[in-house]
Structure prediction request, 313 residues.
Amino acid sequence: MDPIERLRPAKDSSVALMQAAQRAGCPVSVCTPADLSAAGDVALVRARPVSLAEIRPTAAGWQVPDPWLEFKEAAVLPLDHFAHVWMRKDPPVDEAYLYATHLLELGERRGVRVLNRPASLRAWNEKLGSLRFSHLMAPSLVASNVEQLAAFTARHGAVVLKPLGGRAGQGVVRTDASTPGLAALLELVTQQQQLPVMVQAFLPAVSEGDKRILLVDGEPLGAINRRPAAGEFRSNLAVGGAPERTELSDRERQICTELAPALQEAGLFFVGIDVIDGRLSEINVTSPTGVREIEWLGGIPLADLTMERLLKD
Prediction:
C-alpha cells in the first residue's frame, strides 16, 4: 500500500479492511512496494506489524482516536509467511507498480493468495478493462488519433475524455464538437497523438449521481451514489462528490451478474464498478474505495462481510 501514515482513517477503505481483519483475529502487517524484494525465486517483504484502534461511526461521521495506529518492530520475512497479501497501492500503475506485481507473483507460486491477482492487476486497466463489456457502456472509443477522436465527438455531441492512467476523476475533461480549439485539446490529452485516451458519450444523468458498487468475489455487497458538486460533472468523492445512501436497481444487479464470472475467473476478489444511468462506466481493481461511506450511510458492515468471505474460502 501507500505509506500508512498518509492515509485518512475516517475515509480510507484500506484502513477499514485492516480493522476488519483484526476483528476476525488476523494479525496485520503493512508494507510499500519498496519493501518487496526477491532472493532467487523467494519473494521477501519488510513487513511492519500494526495494531489499529477501533474507529466508530457517529451521527457526524467516523470518530478517530488519537493515536489510531501503533507499529511493532519490522522484520524481513518470506512473503509466504502470510496466507493473504492484499495489494492496495493506489495508481498510477507505473513501472514500480508493475514490478511489484511481478514480485508478488513469486509469492503466489508458493501458495500465497494475493488480492487482487497480480496478473489481472496488469491486464485489467481500469478504463480498458470495462471494454470487455462494451455493450453495457455508453458509446466509447479509445484512440490517440485526433481525427478519430474528433469524428467520435462530432457524432455524439458532448463527450468526456478520460486519461487511461487516471484515478479519482483526475484529468477527466468534458467537451463537445463546438468547443473552440478542440483539436488542440485533443493534441494535448494525447500528448501529440502518442498516447491513447478514452472518449465516451456524455451522460447528462450523471447530474443525479454516479453509483459506486463494491463487489466481493463477484457479489455486490454495497453501494453508494456519488452526486457531483455544484458546477461540476465529476462525481468522484476525491473531487467533491457527495456520497448518498442508495439501493441497487434491477439493471445494476443485472450488470453485476454479467460481470461476476469474469471477475472471479480473473481472481479479482474486491472490485468497485461505477454505473451512471444504468450504464457501466469503469471497473476499478487496484484499490477500490467506498467502504467507509457504505458502512456509515447504509449500515452495512461491508469490511467484516468481506473478511468473512475471504477467510471462508
Notes: The mean pLDDT is 94. The longest helix spans residues 250-265. The chain has eight helices and 18 strands. The longest strand covers residues 42-52.
